[in-house]
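User: Study the chain.
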Amino acid sequence: MSAIALLDRDGVYGAPQLHLAAKKAGIQAHIGAEVTSITGIRYPLLAETREGYQNLCRLITRMKLRAAKGKGAITETELAAHARGLVCLTGGECGPLTTAIPNNDGRATLERLAAIFGRENLYVELQRHYDREEEAINQQAIALAETFRLPLLATNGIRYASPRQREILDVFTCIRNHRTLETAGRLLAKNSDRHLKTPAQMARLFYDVPEALDNTVELSRRLQFTLEDLGYKFPRYPVDDGGTMASFLRKRTEEGALNRFRPYDEKSRRQIERELALIEKLGLEGYFLIVWDIVQFCLKNNILIQGRGSAANSAVCYALGITAVDPVKMELLFERFLSEERGEWPDIDLDLPSGNQRERAIQYVYQRYGALGAAMTANVITYRGRSAAREVGKALGFDPETLDRLASLVSHFEYKDESDTLETQFRAAGFDLRQPRIRKFLELCMSLQDLPRHLGQHSGGMVICQGQLDSVVPLEPATMPGRNVVQWDKDDCANMGIVKVDLLGLGMMAVLEDSLTLIREHHNEEVDLAQLPANDPASYAAMQKADTVGMFQIESRAQMSCLPRMRPERFYDIVVQVAIIRPGPIVGKMVHPYLKRRQGREKVEYPHPALEPVLKRTLGVPLFQEQLLKMAMITAGFSGGEAEELRRAFGFKRSERRMKEIEVKLRQGMDRNGIAGPVQDQIIQSISAFALYGFPESHAASFALIAYASAYLKCHYLAAFTAAMLNNQPMGFYSPATLVKDAQRHGLKVKPIDITKSDWLCTLEAGAMRVGLRYVRGLRESAAHAIVKARGRGPFTSVDDLALRVPELQKRELIVLAEVGALNFLNRDQRIHRRDALWQVERASRRTGPLLERIEEPDRSSPLAQMTSEERLIADFTGTGLTVGPHPMAYFRDDMNSIGVLRAIDLPHAGNGTYVRVAGAVIARQRPGTAKGFVFLSLEDETGISNAIITPDVFAQNRFTVVGSRFLLIEGRLQNVDNVVSVKADRVEILPVSQAAAPSHDFH
């Protein structure tokens, strides 16, 4: 075929990908949409011109923005107002003529459509799928076309590429209509004929109306619009002083450089001038000023903000206050961020505190550029393991229990090797793959992988436009009020030249900001993150001991196993630490050589003497993307743009052909520079093995600043830092339960939830931390604020008093408050226990009617027995997800001692190779793809965290024990190398000690 058209329903969602795929295949891509009317009729519309495409986008935006998400419909009046430049087809199923003919309304419908679009822009559409009812309508449509002298058009109503994929369509039909395949009936397709057909097949299908096929060629010639002609323009930044954007940017950059560069030496000046010259040459001044404007808004409104990513390679970004790392001092590669050869916009990521502060920045952009001038980029959520399994299982009619078992076998994050397939897991779980329904389940699950599931919004990508964005791409409402999203994801926007600024919510930024507020309020101290003491001994001592729970980027099990070997002593060590536990260094086998050289166990060597300046800081081992690009520039004479081309060729969407082409260029360049033989091969191997996963040094440096700040605050302001961490959950690697226990082990007094003292958030009380009401599961935030407000007018004296003064509280909320012990402190004379409180709640809830409801009765003890320690633990974890009392393992320590189970704190003192037993609550399960099938467990007891290594064989034998148990007992050999302690498991068994445990962090 020479051309293909895509008409998505009420959108142009697939248009960018169609455009790129068609361009690659050498055919023309026509853009359109099926637009739904208020009568349920769908109008197939094709964009003939750019004006037509803009009208289509505006029409879809109008219908989307006035309705709830996923809803909306147009009127014929709106259709007429946006008809210029559009061609209308009369439609297959649900089309205007198809629905009109059975009601004898075909003539009137064609007259209306001709009046709206003009006869020259109206085609009578025919589709044939071996359906007798459809063909009867076709014959009447042919007669009407002859009467009105309208052209016929043969189309195919495609829903899938090949006939076999009809099964997926049926599953999607069941999902959409909440039916099973057995109950879907006529909702399902009648046959498998809605697949792509060749021109010869179409000719045979429409043998009796050849003009309908000829008209497809004629219409295709008419449709001149392509997405090459999108018409997008980035906004200009308004300059008030009569100057230009270039002069304004220079002034702001010079002011910032004088303040930020210390010293602002000649090298920094030359770099600034080089970057400004390129920015002006490429016409990017407005982009930098708009990002600077967002940063200024945040600074003026006390919103913590920091740029990261490749923008940290830019001296101009540093001078403008966008980034926090001096790229000149760090010797970062500017071309990684921007070069003339790249021919694309730079990408600046801004990290903000997640939550309200970030939302303020987002709303500022909406206000500055208008509701139709800015929007969030979309995020296409695809079917992955568990979601595909659940949807397919429902469609196939599995009972809930079986479906739970099947879905639990599928985990996208788990490592898979040749022997550990979904099929082997099914057999291990007792499912017979010879059974047709089980086999079909597995087959459909695999077919659904990576297909689109629904349209979400990107975590922070915003696109802005000169003029109205809804003329470039349709907008629709996001789930979150006050936000709109474009119908394309970030990659589609980038491919179409639409500029995105990322306003990313980073949980640790919110933690840092909240910590500073708590320190200011409770310690009367001002801590400036930009001026933290360098090389703080306590912070580095904690890192060297891997005592890093809660610290940004360096708290995972893998990081903790590396920190005692790395022993960070200065800031650049943290930069390396952030980057080294990544797939790139691991796959490229760079981690162990680097650590050995750092420990003095291996000599520092360089692949070539010319590379010493590039690799000196990382001891001759390439760890960062920028180093690979510099290696290509030095050894092969690559320009900055060619080096960036190398990065993209070896990037996430790597192409074997492009990789070969780049390798040829690398070898030719090295030949010219006299680098050949084994040295050349070694350099090529370093670049090709590493580039796919390489972590940017600029990115690592930005993260290292935040990592150091989190370490400093935890070491010096533990109460404030812990409260801030708990107030910003979920985030990080550990559950609130583990964060609380870690803080307690570091000496922090954590006070329980108390209706007489707790606020909604966790707060500080004389050096201690009070858990907030936000941790009471099922308690509404509005009810919690009502409690605090009523308490401000006077203390509560009883459960009755609480129920009377806070009528917003529902009975179920009072019950959970009683169960978690929050009402124990209501009686000032005598503390009541939890079952007393439950008794009082039940009594208070029975007091109804105007006569009784205002009469307060004092709380009296109940005839119910107190909860046991296990019951309190279960109530704590069920009701709050944590406990401030002893760790569950503490209650069973005597039993553990009797069977020789060591505490986590005892393990470092046992000799390397000793056969030991260790036990605890499982808080993390990891099975990274780089670990060759090994599983890593973190177990927590009352003294700390211990680590266990499960070999593939042991895991295969104990899969359901390892994956499904809350508490485990593990036997095996102790490994203690460079103060990194773990147990290599020989035996794994369930530990039946308690039902109280927090959810573990599994396979992320």
